[in-house]
Structures are given as C-alpha cells and as structure tokens.
Recover the amino acids of this structure.
C-alpha cells in the first residue's frame, strides 16, 4: 500500500530513444525521466515517488552510452554500462581491480545484469555502492543536455542530499571518467551484511591510496550509508597521509573518522551500530596496510 498522500506518478508518454540526441531532445523540457536498468526506478514508481516525470525516456538502445574504454591513462565508463560488464571486464581487472571487486559485492546476478553505473550515481542513494570507489578515484561525471556543450563535474561534488544531485531536469549522465591509478595503488571496499552480496549497505567504506612500507599516501576514505550523501573523511585522510601506521595513528584516525561521519538510527540499523561498524572497517583495513 502507498503511504498517505503519495500516488504513483502518471506516465503519459514513452520515448524509446535510439540515439543520445533523441534522448536529450526528449528530456529538454524537464518533464522526462531517464530509464536505464529500472532497478531503482520501478521501486520508486510503485512508492509514488515524485521525482518521476510524465515522459519516460528509455536509454537502453543508445549504444554510445555503453562500454568501458582506456585511453591516454584515463578510464571512461559509459553511463549505461551494467555492473555485470564491470565485473567481467579484463582491462579493469588488470588496472583497477577495485571496481570488479565492488561489482562482486553488488546485489544478485539478475540485478547486476540490468543495473547501470549511471543509474547508481543518478539515483543518489547514500548507500550506492559504486559511488564510493568512483569518488575515491577522483572521478568526473560527464553531463550532456540538448543544445549545450557537455560539462564535467567532480563526482565528490555531485550530490546535495539523499536522492538529490546538481543534475538539471534536462540533463543526462553520459559517462564517468577517472585516471588509472599508480602502480602501488591500494584499494579496498568493505560492506556490511551476513551475505557476500545481496545486501543494501548498512555501512560501506572505501579506502584507497599509494601504499609503500606501511605508509599510505594520497589516501581517500569514503563512507556510504552514514550520512545524507556519501562522506569523504578529508581530515582523517590528512592524518593518515604519509604517516607510519602504528597503534597511535590507528586510534587517532578512528576518533577523527567518527567525528566526520553522521550516521542515523533507522529501521535498518542504529546510529551506535553504524558507528561501530565504520570503526571496525577502518581499523581492520589500516592494520592490513601496516603489514604491507
Ligand atoms: C534487489 C535489489 C538489490 C540491490 N542491491 C544493490 C547493491 O547491492 N548496491 C547498490 O548500490 N544498489 C543496489 N540496488 C539499487 C540499484 O540496483 C542500483 O542503484 C542501480 O545501479 C541503479 O541503476 P539502474 O540502471 O537500474 O537505474 P534506474 O532504476 O534506471 O534509474 C535510477 C535513477 O537514475 C536516473 N538515471 C538512470 N540513468 C541515468 C543517466 N544516465 N543520467 C541521468 N539520470 C539517470 C533514473 O531516472 C532514476 O531516477 C539494488 C536494487 C534492487 C532492486
């Protein structure tokens, strides 16, 4: 049953776009809603989500939005690339194994086959798994609209609240782009849940950096599901960067991180539990770094 005062949106028009140009035209008046895998969108529609416009714009036939390419030291992942494609991509497995590892913790095979990277970003859930490593990799989102030049936006500045982004109603994410990491790149992704996948994260963490002799440089520490958007713990990163990881540093990093996240209590977990798990993830991964 729908919550009181919420009604399923009325979709009166359907555009099966066969080119990017056709999709952007269909979105130009701000009344269109892009449909990628539909794994979030259908649930929102049934919940009476007000974000859905009257014109559904299916992106699935737009081949130029699919695929992963590596050029001049940069990786470009098309917005319509599925999580399964990331899991199976050999080039990523060699250069950024972190991403296939995240794909391996994502939902089930059925969902991975339809769910897209662009949908994961645009949906702007604080628990969106792919956003964490992509933010940690300093990714940029490529954004297109009808009649204007494409623009790029740092993914870390893309989200403004739960389900909210800087994306205009006439804009489409076309790709996400990041630099191939250095050779001594270290990247880990941790996610709660008793099962290896099929869990919406109660807490997720991504820690990356250049690791040598127990020292992590240029670290990125990003948490999911402990705030209104994914959270970059920049003060904790500064503390970790370039310092020998010993007991004192670990204790300081845990306390600093706990002050940077803002978990809430909801039906899925308490604030206390989320904080405890966040601390456990960070402690565990810093100890791993110390021994490498
Ligand atoms: C059973 C189940 C398990 C799940 N497990 C996980 C999980 O483990 N981890 C996780 O992170 N998520 C999970 N999800 C959520 C969901 O699968 C992901 O967020 C997925 O990546 C959404 O992609 P999609 O292509 O299906 O998006 P859609 O549902 O098609 O779209 C989502 C939103 O993004 C917009 N959109 C889509 N593409 C674009 C674009 N290119 N430009 C602009 N806007 C766009 C749509 O209009 C809509 O508002 C799960 C969902 C289900 C149903």
């Amino acid at each position: 049953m729908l919550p009181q005062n919420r009604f399923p949106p009325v979709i009166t028009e359907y555009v099966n776009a066969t080119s990017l140009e056709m999709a952007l035209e269909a979105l130009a008046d701000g009344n269109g809603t892009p449909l990628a895998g539909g794994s979030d969108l259908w649930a929102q529609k049934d919940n009476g989500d007000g974000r859905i416009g009257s014109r559904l714009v299916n992106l699935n036939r737009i081949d130029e939005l699919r695929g992963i390419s590596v050029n001049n030291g940069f990786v470009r992942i098309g917005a319509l690339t599925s999580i399964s494609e990331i899991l199976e991509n050999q080039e990523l497995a060699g250069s950024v194994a972190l991403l296939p590892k995240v794909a391996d913790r994502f939902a089930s095979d059925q969902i991975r086959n339809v769910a897209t990277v662009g949908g994961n970003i645009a949906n702007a859930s604080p628990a969106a798994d792919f956003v964490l490593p992509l933010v940690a990799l300093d990714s940029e989102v490529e954004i297109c609209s009808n009649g204007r030049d494409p623009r790029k936006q740092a993914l870390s500045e893309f989200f403004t609240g739960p389900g909210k982004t800087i994306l205009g109603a006439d804009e489409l994410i076309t790709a996400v782009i990041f630099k191939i990491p250095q050779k001594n790149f270290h990247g880990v992704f941790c996610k709660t849940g008793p099962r290896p996948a099929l869990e919406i994260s109660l807490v997720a963490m991504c820690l990356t950096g250049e690791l040598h002799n127990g020292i992590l440089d240029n670290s990125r520490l990003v948490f999911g599901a402990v705030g209104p958007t994914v959270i970059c713990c920049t003060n904790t990163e500064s503390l970790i960067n370039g310092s020998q990881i010993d007991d004192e540093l670990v204790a300081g990093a845990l306390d600093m991180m706990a002050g940077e996240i803002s978990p809430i209590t909801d039906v899925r977990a308490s604030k206390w539990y989320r904080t405890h798990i966040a601390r456990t993830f960070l402690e565990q991964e810093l100890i791993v770094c110390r021994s490498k």
Notes: The chain has a mean pLDDT of 94.
